[in-house]
Amino acid sequence: MLEPVMFTGGVYKHDLVIELVEDLGGYLLQKNITQSEVILLMLIPREDMQIMEDMTKALMGKLDRAPLAGTETAVVTPTLAIHHLPHPACDVAEYLRRHGSKSNMIGMARGVGRDIAQMTGYETALINEHDAVVFTFGNFKKCILKKEHLYRNIEIPVIITGGPDMEQGDLPYAAEYVSNIGRIAHRSRKATEIESLDNIVDAVGRSLDMTREEIAKDPLTTIPPRAMEVIREQVPDINQSYAPLPITLNLKGLRIKLPYDQYQEAVKAVTFDEGVTLGEIAKVMPSRMKNYILVRISPTSVTGFVV
């Protein structure tokens, strides 16, 4: 079982952490360097966590569990117009990125009007390509309750945010509800506002951990980080992509930011050391996002083996 963690420390000797990750059989998901500080998102075998903690202590760094690492989260706002895109939506998307998740902001087909708001099948399918979704609603309880039809058919965990205090039972189709995040016209700077953002991260993290537990009952044929490494080696054009995170990890697969029509055969032909191709153990299909390539790895109950 691989545990998602985040290392924060100085740039000096951070290569030792990367080498240790490789030696332990883990994976480096992302590296961000800001002046004299480095942030590493990693997957580490749970039984070897103490070794990584000892290395972190020796380098005077900080090691935290990061349940959002290696995931993709959608942040849905009613519309992308200025009156429906208040600062909290941007704060939520940015805060999720800070904690390791790749966040994408999505506007509804019709977000104006409590009674006529709607989402198309295309938008629902696009949201379902993510690992979790956060809906940023407003300050009125009746309005939030009226919009259950927008996320009723979504298959991934749904986290609802809004201004009023509400019970979880009021929203039966949502995994969790986070209050005190309504429509405000300023950035989140106060301690209470930052605490609300932390609550959103915690809610998303709990939902993702539940998904991980479900996957553990029927493990994937191969883990997405290994598929990512093989794709980087055998499809070199991915290194020429200017998109942020050219290969974006999901809990059940990954998104490759190359044109589907041009590169689908190359992706399907990617071969592991065991002689198995990616096309044999995964579904390679067009993504709803810019015609990228979406890979969904099959569980062992379908293939009958582990790579």
Task: Report what the structure shows.
The protein has 307 residues and is α/β, with parallel strands linked by helices. It folds into 3 domains: 2-65, Alpha-Beta Plaits (2-Layer Sandwich); 72-215, Response regulator (Rossmann fold), CATH 3.40.50; 224-303. It is 33% helix and 23% strand. The protein is built from 10 helices and 13 strands. Strands 6-5-7-8-9 form a 5-stranded parallel sheet, sandwiched between helices. It has a 4-stranded antiparallel sheet with strand order 2-3-1-4, with helices on one face. α3 (87-98) crosses α6. It starts with a strand and ends with a helix. The model has no long low-confidence stretch (mean pLDDT 89).
In short:
The chain is of the alpha/beta class. Helices cover 33% and strands 23% of the residues. The chain has three domains: 2-65, Alpha-Beta Plaits, CATH 3.30.70; 72-215, Rossmann fold (3-Layer(aba) Sandwich); 224-303.
Overview features:
307 residues, alpha/beta, Rossmann fold, five-stranded parallel β-sheet, 10 helices
